[in-house]
Amino acid sequence: MRKLIENRFGLLALVLVALGALYGVAFVSRPAPVAQARPRPVTAPVESVTAVCPAPSGSRVSVVTPADPDRPRTAGSATLAPIKAAGKDGGKDGKGDVIDKVGVLWQRDVAAGGGPLVVDATGSMAAGLESAQTARETSGTQRGLAGVRCVEPGAESWFVGPGPAAAEMTLYLANPDSAPANVSFMVYSGEGPVLSERGNGVVVKPGQHRVIRLRDLAPSPLIMALQVNVSSGRVAAAVKAVLGEGRGVDWLPVAAAPATRVVVPGIPGSAGQRELYVAAPGERDTVVRIRAVLPDGSYALKNKETLEVPAGSTSSLDLSTGIGGQPAALVLEADVPIVAGLKITGTGARQDVAFTAGAPSVDLGSVVADGRAEGKQTSRLVLSAPFAAATVRVQLLPAKGRAPAPVEVKLPAARTQEIKLKPPKGSKGGFSVVVRPMPGSGPVYGGRVLDEAATDGQMVTAQPLAVARIWTLVPPTVDSPGAVLP
After folding, report:
1. Residues 216-225: pLDDT tens digits?
2. How is the chain split into domains, by residue range?
3. Sign for the pseudo-dihedral over CA of 461, 465, 469, 473
């Protein structure tokens, strides 16, 4: 042993053995590690909603907040006021209306003249609130039904449809916030991106609204995709298309943001032209694969299975012989992100048009503010389950009278179903529609179609279903030195 200790290499070995023994004891006796829970977003009910009805002059404005027994009731109300009077004093100074009844449709016919109206809601009136404007004209260039969902202010919006060379295309911008919005535009035509020589950006001041003729930005496109981008602040954007005397009028719905798979829902089962628009705003060409979801199944359309879209441009395809006369949705897939929309043309000597666009599935439910079944007007839901079987509950909320019991609708996988909406006997005026997927349901996409059988030609407007503003995700909070350090 003495020789081992005197040997420096032996001493090193003893030290290593001792350290190993100590480490082994510490390893065996150490406490179990405490599992660190990863912060996750928290689901919270929506407590405040702002939406802008872009040009309600001569239209009927509808506002509704459906009742939800699972949601705690809190004090709250909604106000409808001109944009400059909107805010905490809207509706209290004689310049607006107060809406405070949950589960009841509120409607008002707006006289001609005036600018945008802002819906501000808080508390129990906010979660699930929907609003819309719908105009009906029987003559002139504005003849037809023209409806649009009142728009939430945001940072980016996409629209796909005819170009300024094919229709009078007008962009409506409104800023209901207290900060200015810096807005820029990009138009993707059939020939590629288009930049205006007059500049492609504006500043929309707080409480201000702007009306811009797209012909001044890009006069030549026959078809287009329009990107409205806000670098600071927020803006509510909407686009109206007037095709001319006897050719129709309507608003373009906001299209889903670019994605490699887009579902275009809510195509009605009536006769008339169906024209698809697809844009590829990136830097790569693509071939879009098209699949129709019809009442009897889902399949590629003969000789119309694909559509070539060059980089930075928009292409169109006539699908009248493929889906005409059948309620449908379209599933589009590409190798690069795309945006899409579709024009619906009514029948008759004088035509009217409607538009639908790529939309998300309504996993949290959806609310449509304006439905009608008066005289020769009819409202229909077009629901599709393109990927898996789904079950939804459909509830009507009339403006007057008792709401009927909800109806359960089962959608087989890869099928589309059209439902005619009839208010209960004794109810008067319009009604709203609430669609709620049941637990375990597959993704559901849809749209509401409103039409009127006029003697000189069918009048029609459409609205793809949007996700109900009921819940929101609150980002997680974590400890960070950045909270106290400069």
Report:
1. 989 999 999 9
2. 43-473
3. negative
